[in-house]
Amino acid sequence: MKLVDLKTLSTSASLSVATLRNYIKMGMPHYRVRRKILIDLEEFNQWMQQFRNNANQESPDFRQVVDETFQAI
Predict the structure, then answer these.
(1) Do the Cβ atoms of 3 and 39 come closer than 8 Å?
(2) Which of 7, 26, 31, 39 is deepest in the core (most CB within 10 A)?
């Protein structure tokens, strides 16, 4: 387990500290020691995987929207 603070994670992940704070509000796993917020890098990477977008896979909702749009024309 490697714990890092928000500033360190911000630099390594190329995300702003404000964005990371928003991710915490969205449920990103973290540890709070008094006022210090620490993130386990492995847990962060696992949490981020849920947002991975595979370019080869179309969202069924997107395909449905396209079909409905063309039917309306």
Answers:
(1) yes
(2) 39
What does pTM read for this prediction?
Answer: 0.69
Neighbours of 10 (CB within 10 A): 17
Q: What SS3 state is found at 38? A: strand
Q: CB under 8 Å to 27, separation ≥6 — which residues?
A: 47
pLDDT of 30 over the 90 cut: yes
CATH architecture designation of domain 3-72: Orthogonal Bundle (1.10)
Domain boundaries, the chain: 3-72
pLDDT, tens digit, for every residue of 15-27?
A: 999 999 999 999 9
- What whole-number distance in Å separates Cα of residue 9 and Cα of residue 64? 38
- Mean per-residue pLDDT for 51-66? 69
Give 8's strand partners.
none
